[in-house]
Amino acid sequence: MSSALSATPAVLTVEIEPEKAIQGRPPEPLSRENAEILAGAVADDLRRIVGEDVASAGLILPAGLYDLTELLRPGLPMVEALLDLYRGSLRGGPFEPQLLALGTAGGRFPGAGLAPERRPGAGPLLALPLALVAPGETLDPLRRSLEQVLLEKGRASLATDRTIRQLFGVEPVHLSYATFHDLSALMKVQLEHAGFGELWQLVEGALYRPDAIEKIDMTTGNTFLGWGGMVYTPIRTFNDHATRANTQSEATGNAYVEWAKIQRQYTLALAHHGIEVRHCPPHSGIDAADAEVAMSVAQATALPADTPWYAEEIAAEEPLEGASIVTLTEQFDTTLGPVAYTVLIQARDGRLLRLEHDYPLAPPAIDAIQDHWRRRASQLGANFQLERPGRMVAGGQPAQLRPWLDYAGEA
Questions:
Q1: 3-class secondary structure, 275
Q2: pLDDT one-digit tens code per residue, 346-374
Q3: Nearest-CA neighbor of 166 among 37, 42, 66?
Q4: Are 298 and 225 in contact (CB under 8 A)?
């Protein structure tokens, strides 16, 4: 009796000139008819590279070009989806090696969530994923063969090169086959070369070591804690940054922008890998040297996943019904855009009712913060003023964010 079906994944990497890759989106996935043409060329390549024994396994191939981050995700959901589709094609019958090419029909791509995301700027290294499917005793020797020969002998044929060029309309400079482990090694080299070695440590942990805690402490003050396919990260506010370093506004501003830039880069990159990022208020213990202690604090204090922004309350007096004006100051950096919004609510006699700094945790929160306080001012019957000084407004030693009050200025 044969064992259950399993799958071993591989990819055809498609390297494109960087200046051409950053223009627009990757090409659309192929139609069902063109997908079959491409799958036939790939099958011929695999027989040439691995040997005729590869025909004892089924081959399933989604005919689209994917960014590497779409494939290297915790649990390898792409592989599971392809295996499920192959099982479904058997309609409950015994295993048969067959060639399944997945392409669009009527503008729709088969399989929930399988269509390539086609993000602008993806690449310059894209990948055409595929999977060999067979019972375990058939697939195991083929998996070992793939691991031994693909990286060394896996250059695509001229026929496959022509097919890629004609059907996708791209001009690859290099086409070669690789296993997912090869793909991981390639991404590691790319990220380390670009100065993002700590990012790869988090991704690698989510992919291959989900039960181990990955703790990253950076010289810029950024901290990331990975476990169970998720990453936790404490929020560092401008005021907290200044208090720790005891610096004035200019030095604090430069250091905080660097912290915020890395925070945004890592959060976005991890999200592209399908890794959920949970933000945590700066509670005591979250920066503990012991990774288990820091992780327990992070898990206990993490904000809900759908929290749009973090509010740092400086002063608050309730109720707010006597409010006369709600002033929102956009704390801005020329490279990052809005970094925070300082909320100042005053009574008719000038008395301070509320002062807080709202930090957007994702780009949509920028508009959400403005809309929230505009609506709140309307509910209170107060005037609403949005100030845009075009910089971060801070002062003192240590520096603290401040509202923009020079209404005669350029804000």
A1: coil
A2: 998 889 999 999 999 999 999 999 999 99
A3: 37
A4: yes
